[in-house]
Amino acid sequence: MRLKLGIWGIQPGYEIILEQIGVPYENVSENTNITLENYSVIIISEIIQESDKQVILEYMNTGGSVLLNARCWANLYGKKLKQKKVRFLISDNNSIYSSLGLVDIYTKISYVNSKELGILDEGLGIYHTKIGKGFVLIFPFDINSLILDTRSIRKRFYSERKELPSEIVARVSKGKLRELVRISLGSLHHKRGLPFVHKWYFPDSSENVFIFRLDTDFCSSHQANNMVGICRKNNISATWFLDTTSEERLHNYAEMKDQELALHCDRHLVFSDYKNNKKNLEIGRDKLNATGIEMNGFAAPFGDWNPELAKVLDDLNLEYSSEFTLDYDDLPFNPFINGKFSKVLQIPIHPISLGWLRRSHFSPKEMLNYYLKLIDEKLYLYEPTIIYHHPHHEYLNILDKVFQYVNKIKVKKLTMNEYAKWWKMRTNTQPDLYFEDNRLRSNIESNDISLRITLEEGSIITKFNKMIDLANLRFIKQKKVEHQHDLKRLRKWCWRDILYNYESIRGKKKK
């Protein structure tokens, strides 16, 4: 039995998600031999022509698992759709998606009133049904268009207090949608009595990684030296994104041989056109090179991203960039721009800094608790823990305690460039997976990349070997995580959002 997904109508949004998850897949059509042995799950992402429907119906009726959206389902069975516009959805706490919580989509959802459909998660509008011997799972939205959405908006982030921190970030919760697809694929494999197998997200079978990012705008040499002292005290190599306007400070950064140095900007702006973005980055790069600093990465001022900036990053042959208006709290990916995938890896981070916590009137104790809870949350969500800071905001005692906690729980510490290089190696490792007699067979053996294998009774992370006997593995039941009960307050109107948006626009005009 081959463990491979077939996608009817392959689309870049699904490609991004499946590469993030790390599961083998390929495009299928009416000319493909779509059988239970060849494909463990079929994803239908576009309308199927009338003459081709029988191929999919036969796959389902004989026991195949299928994932599709309501529009494709309605087309397949000649049903009528109902639609409504929503800003966000909230998962049920008693479903397999309970950990997702609030999912921002800002789009129309579609649903079919049909007696043969059962509700899998009412809050998310996800339905399921059995067709013949097969299983079907139905999303109310189009995954591809949501993942390719590049709009941004100010959002508030959860804390157990009245005033919440906010930032302008990607409008769509892409990380939540990626996890929703992963959970769904796992369920559909398990319905067939198959393990769900995907490449693990972190090197060396680590439970997680911790990356500390620093943006140096308005930072003095004294503040930078204090900051690097705290990093060294805790054995942390941070990734410093350098503002090159103050050239006299670049020699100070060049002496930080145990830290990663990358580019933030020359002018603290992102422009709407290619020419000005390229000029800004090239001036910054040349200043770094003149000081003996070679850059591999970039993080834009204000977390801003646009396609014209992305073209510049590609032309400069950078390893990675990091902009939270494109995505945040997610796994790395290569953005899809103007009909092709960028060569520059995007590394999403958690977008709330200590500066924003201060702006939201958090006490030092509340600031520390915010980050400690965030680290714990990232561990059970299997998302990389990447936080950022501006050294001129200081709060070194809080960061010291955060770093101590990271060391205590023994999370693997990396720079952004180290993670980017490993992730690209992971992407280039494309296994063929087969399952028979309770054994997993692969064409690849690797000490650098691990597999996550899930069954209904639990999951395990194990090294990539050519033959793995599941009977010899100890599967661990994953703890069920429920989301907070008051998530709707995150998206209620708040006068502070208007104030902060005004301040953001005014601040950029002054640059």
Characterise the protein shown here:
The chain is α/β, with parallel strands linked by helices. The protein folds into 3 domains: 5-156 and 171-190, Rossmann fold (3-Layer(aba) Sandwich), CATH 3.40.50; 203-423, Glycoside hydrolase/deacetylase (TIM Barrel, Alpha-Beta Barrel), CATH 3.20.20; 429-472, no CATH class. The protein contains 14 helices and 27 strands. The strands form 8 sheets. It has a 7-stranded mixed β-sheet, sandwiched between helices. The longest helix has 18 residues, at 174-191. The mean pLDDT is 95.
Short structural description:
With 511 residues, the protein is α/β, with parallel strands linked by helices.
Oligomer category: single chain
Number of strands: 27
* Proportion of beta-strand residues: 25-35%
Question: Span between N and C termini?
Answer: 59 Å
Give the count of helical stretches. 14
Instruction: Kindly name the structural category.
Output: alpha/beta
Which short descriptors sum up this protein?
seven-stranded mixed β-sheet; 511 residues; alpha/beta; five-stranded parallel β-sheet; globular; 14 helices; 31% helix; 3 domains
What secondary-structure arrangement, pairings included, does this model have?
Layout: E1 5-8, H1 12-21, E2 25-28, E3 41-44, H2 53-61, E4 65-69, H3 70-77, E5 82-90, E6 102-111, E7 118-121, E8 126-131, E9 134-139, H4 143-147, E10 152-156, E11 166-170, H5 174-191, E12 196-199, E13 209-215, H6 221-233, E14 239-243, H7 250-254, E15 260-265, H8 274-290, E16 297-298, H9 307-315, E17 320-321, E18 336-337, E19 340-341, E20 345-346, H10 354-359, H11 364-381, E21 385-389, H12 396-408, E22 412-413, H13 416-428, E23 433-436, E24 439-442, E25 446-455, E26 458-464, E27 467-469, H14 495-509
Parallel strand pairs: 1-2, 1-3, 3-4, 4-9, 13-14, 13-21, 13-22, 14-15, 16-17, 17-20
Antiparallel strand pairs: 5-6, 7-8, 8-9, 10-11, 12-25, 18-19, 23-24, 24-27, 25-26
